[in-house]
UniProtKB/TrEMBL annotation:
Protein family according to the UniProt entry: Belongs to the ANT/ATPSC lysine N-methyltransferase family.
Signal peptide: none
Annotated GO biological process: methylation; positive regulation of sensory perception of pain; regulation of mitochondrial ATP synthesis coupled proton transport
Annotated source species: Gallus gallus (Chicken)
Protein name: ATP synthase subunit C lysine N-methyltransferase
Source domain of life: Eukaryota
Taxonomy of the source species: Eukaryota, Metazoa, Chordata, Craniata, Vertebrata
Gene Ontology MF terms: protein-lysine N-methyltransferase activity
Length: 218
């Protein structure tokens, strides 16, 4: 009978090449798969709705929108809150102007990214970000409220802010105005338009016979 080759005899060159190709194939497949999973985990939270009651995907504020919001904050005092703060642009810009600024955002990835940006820009002591649903937060302690909303949410948000805010508050709406209130100030054009509503002057509130209710806890 023919003798078997020694156990330590080398494999044929073709077998070695095939084994090497299989190993490279597994590494490449694993690398590509891991990269796709990582991209999905990072990108998905940025494009999914940030507010669950309405379809409100994350759309970054433009430079013009930020400048228009800052115009509406000129001469104002007190704290600033951004409802649905996204990647923190408005909050950070307000903090750079000296405001104590807070952002509420339901998307944790955006909140963590906002905190990093605030730290990077050196305003983390004035810019705070919280993971929270806006409908579960009371805004009664804020005097300047910034809203980047969509038409579906504005009527209910109008009611909520009317009930919670003090009579010296200013509400700044971006992209879409409130349906019932008449703005005291307007600036910008198109998607960069910003509307400001002053409870102190009560222009829109009185015109609609709306009453300011006492502050309440959420």
């Amino acid at each position: 009978m023919p003798s078997s080759p020694p156990a330590d005899s080398p494999l044929p060159a073709g077998s070695e090449d095939g084994s090497r190709r299989r190993r490279w194939g597994l590494w490449i497949t694993g690398g590509v798969g891991g990269t796709l999973v990582a991209l999905y985990a990072v990108v998905t939270p940025f494009v999914t709705p940030a507010l669950r009651r309405v379809c409100l995907p994350f759309v970054p504020a433009t430079s013009a929108q930020i400048e228009n919001v800052l115009k509406m904050l000129q001469g104002r005092r007190g704290s600033v809150v951004d409802i649905g703060s996204g990647d923190g642009r408005i909050v950070i810009a307000a903090a750079k102007r000296g405001f104590e600024a807070v952002g509420y955002e339901l998307n944790p990835w955006l909140v963590w990214y906002s905190r990093y940006r605030a730290w990077r820009d050196g305003v983390h002591h004035k810019a705070k970000f919280y993971i929270s649903d806006l409908w579960k937060v009371s805004f009664s302690r804020y005097t300047n409220v910034v809203v980047f909303g969509v038409p579906q949410m504005m009527p209910e948000l109008e009611k909520k802010l009317r009930e919670e805010l003090e009579c010296n508050a200013r509400i700044i709406a971006c992209r879409f105005p409130f349906p019932c209130w008449i703005p005291d100030h307007t600036t910008g054009e198109g998607i960069d338009t910003v509307w400001a509503y002053d409870l102190k002057h009560s222009g829109g509130f009185e015109a609609r016979n709306l009453e300011i209710t006492p502050e309440r806890e959420s």
